[in-house]
Please model this.
Amino acid sequence: MGRLLAGVSTSYGWLNTLIDAVIGLINPILIVASVAGIVYAIWVGVKFVKADDKTKRDEAKQHLIMVIVGIVVVVLLIALFYFLAYNIDNIISQTQF
Model:
């Protein structure tokens, strides 16, 4: 399996080490979260389809909305991490301490 953010390199050695450590933590977490999210979404979808009364259907619908919001949040966080990792040199050089 390929690495998330493979090829990110900065002009700061310590930052490359930090990015590699974060990538090492993020990859397994993303895999587990993705599998858990998919399994939970399928389970909630089955509950929604099999719901007999309106109360159970509404409850399953709320859970499904939460799953979708969770997926959107995870995708946005990954996009933010990509943006920061690939632009960290520019961000550091433009920041005045």
